[in-house]
Design brief:
The chain has helices spanning about 15-25, 45-50, 55-70, 90-115, 170-175, 190-200, 220-235, 330-340, 370-375, 390-395, 425-435, 440-445, 455-465, and strands spanning about 5-10, 30-35, 115-125, 130-135, 140-150, 155, 170, 185, 205-210, 235-240, 245-250, 255-260, 265-270, 275, 280, 315, 355-360, 365-370, 380-385, 405-410, 415-420. It is α/β, with parallel strands linked by helices.
């Protein structure tokens, strides 16, 4: 096997495998190194996202939502279903099948595009050389004109709740429950905690979410986080903010968690399972030789410029190991940008137009600035909101929670942000992303024809509402 390449990508997740495919498409001799082994110790591409992250969690979210709908909501449509039961083993097996199908698909894409795959661990050495250690322990040195670091991230561990077997688990362990825990604790009310907590809550778990921050979803627009808190409470998610976990004790098949509540008073809760979802950190352990020359910042992220160049010419870094949100789609687009740059093309990524999504039900999605940020920056803005409760299509679907909120510059009308909570928020946000990418104004969307009846009309109406012209709700009078 050749040891010299135009491009070597270390990491085969959504950043790395996309970068490798793109580089190969552009005529560059490309290799990709991935260390992932599945439950059967078989090599797998796709990284965290495909194997134990984005994809498997969505499989469980969709399965649990369909179960909950059948159990609680079909009667509204006149559908009688009798007793509804969930086969958790079948649900988890289906999730595994989807993961296998997609990861195998990447292997096929590598073959189709001529990417050389190395199964094992990659380490960047000096002078753009890469030490490759195969799973059998054999070592060889590879050389490249360019190296792309795409080693991803790992869950953050906290000393008060160390992972122990199958009682205290991280996101990976929470995807493998083979029965519904009666009492489920979740540490962290972020994306992972809320998504996994909602899966098991729909299936019957009593879920308590302990969040150390005083405010709920502080990174979201406050209108969004307030609406989400109200809806999640109705769904029996017990979210306790200002709750700082101080210890845990596993006793047989349960765990007792000690925490300080918002008043600083010590509290205890006992759970059958505990999910630790307090965030992720960049994975660079063992990936960089001491003389590799790549600089890290104080938080362990690889330092890069706006085009993902590191401090070493010809070495790039993308995805979760660099600044910016830890999102699969952000990593993928950085991979495309870097491959294009290496191939000699002009490429730039718009970091102001990266959407974020929480895949609960309803979903939360946003792009651009929120009201808190704009107020802090002293920007004058105007807001348009439209509730799904006024959408004919949402009513027909019995899915009327939430709203669309569009924020535009008061003087130029340029769209500055869009924030959606609703049943199709993850898909609807793409309309706002495209609009913002093209520098659209709220009027541009207001003048666009939307199909009727669709939930997309809520985006149209929110844009109309920015200037008080919404048709299907009463507009707020301007002061």
């Amino acid at each position: 096997m050749s040891t010299k390449f135009d491009v070597i990508v270390i990491g085969g997740g959504p950043g790395g495998y996309v970068a490798a495919i793109r580089a190969a498409q552009l005529g560059l001799k490309t290799a990709c190194i991935e260390k992932w082994l599945d439950k059967e110790n078989k090599p797998r591409l796709g990284g965290t996202c495909l194997n134990v992250g984005c994809i498997p969690s969505k499989a469980l979210l969709d399965s649990s939502h369909k179960y909950h709908d059948a159990k609680e909501s079909y009667g509204v449509h006149g559908i009688t279903v009798g007793d509804v039961a969930m086969d958790v083993n079948a649900m988890v097996d289906r999730k595994d099948k989807i993961v296998n199908q997609l990861t195998s698909g990447i292997t096929g894409l590598f073959k189709a595009n001529g990417v050389t795959s190395f199964e094992g661990f990659g380490k960047l050495l000096a002078n753009k050389k890469v030490e490759f250690t195969a799973h059998d322990g054999s070592v060889q040195t590879l050389e490249a004109e360019n190296v792309i670091l795409a080693t991803g991230s790992v869950p953050v561990n906290i000393p008060p709740a160390p992972r122990t077997g199958d009682i205290i688990v991280d996101n990976e362990g929470a995807l493998e429950f083979r029965s519904v825990p009666k009492r489920l604790g979740v540490i962290g009310a972020g994306v992972i905690g809320l998504e996994l907590g909602s899966v098991w809550a729909r299936l019957g778990s009593e879920v308590v979410v302990l969040e150390a921050q005083e405010s709920f979803l502080s990174l979201c627009d406050q209108d969004l986080s307030k609406e989400a808190a109200k809806i999640f409470k109705k769904q029996d998610l017990d979210i306790r903010t200002g709750a700082r976990v101080t210890g845990s004790q596993v006793n047989g098949e349960e765990v007792e968690v000690t925490y300080l509540d918002a008043k600083g008073e010590e509290q205890k809760e006992t759970f059958d399972k505990l999910i630790v979802a307090v965030g992720r950190k960049p994975f660079t352990d063992g990936c960089l030789a001491g003389d590799a020359g790549v600089d890290l910042d104080e938080r362990g992220f690889v330092f890069v410029d706006e085009q993902c160049r590191t401090s070493v010419p010809g070495v790039f870094a993308i995805g979760d190991i660099v600044r910016g949100p830890m999102l699969a789609h952000k990593a993928s687009e950085e991979g495309v940008m870097v491959a294009d740059i290496i191939a000699g093309h002009k490429a730039q990524m718009n970091y102001d137009c990266i959407p974020s999504v929480i895949y609960t039900h309803p979903e939360l999605a946003w792009v651009g600035k929120n009201e808190q940020e704009l107020k802090a920056e002293g920007v004058k803005y105007k807001v348009g909101k439209f509730p799904f409760a006024a959408s004919g299509r949402a009513m027909a679907a019995n899915d009327t929670d939430g709203f669309v909120k569009i924020i535009a510059d008061e003087e130029t009308d340029r769209i500055l942000g869009c924030h959606i909570i609703g049943g199709h928020a993850a898909d609807l946000i793409a309309q706002a992303v495209i609009a913002m990418e093209f520098g659209s104004t709220a009027e541009d969307i207001a003048l666009t024809v939307f199909a009727h009846p669709t939930v997309s009309e809520a985006v149209h109406e929110a844009a109309l509402a920015v200037d008080g012209h919404a048709i299907h709700i009463a507009n707020r009078k301007k002061r």
